[in-house]
Amino acid sequence: MQRPVPLNEEIVLDPKRYIVSKTDTKGIITYGNEYFIEIVGYSEDELIGQPHNIIRHPDMPKIVFKVMWDRINSGKNIKAIVKNLAKDGRYYWVVTDFEPKYDPLTNKIIGHTAYRKAAPKKAVEAIEPIYQKLLAIEATGGMEASGKFLVEYLDLKKVTYDEFVDSLIEYRGLTKLFFEAMKKLFG
């Protein structure tokens, strides 16, 4: 499937709606809720069986996805602020909470669920320059160099990745309740 050409037009997400998708352990889409399908613009048949990176926007640094995959493949949840790409080339920003899914008999990871909602404007404004810097570093020094920068940036701020993202998205109150409710509903 050919990737769309990014446009400089944002899809404004409904703050009262949520996006849910599920993948297998290799990142192949196994489920997408109705709003996910509506926003990305692919039909359900076009999405199921495709790698989740079909919606990866080129403005997203590779190191962010490496951090995410390392965490969820080790059985840990992670939240991230992500810019995604729709089929028509438009983009949208989300806060994503990834969670591994386990086989109840073997306790091995069998898939992943991503719960998403519209990213707060101030979180996007704060993360976008960092992502641009990471992309510039990746272009000249590769993902290892961008990873080093990210670690140093977080060390300088004296926060973990999780604490940094939580502070940007204000992970408390209604935001926290939202993600907890989605996990109960789709978990």
Automatic annotation (TrEMBL):
InterPro entries: PAS, PAS-like_dom_sf, PAS_fold_3. Residues 24-75 form the PAS domain. PROSITE patterns: PAS. It comes from the Bacteria. It holds the Pfam family PAS_3. NCBIfam families: sensory_box. This is Signal-transduction sensor protein. It comes from Campylobacter geochelonis. The lineage of its organism: Bacteria, Pseudomonadati, Campylobacterota, Epsilonproteobacteria, Campylobacterales.
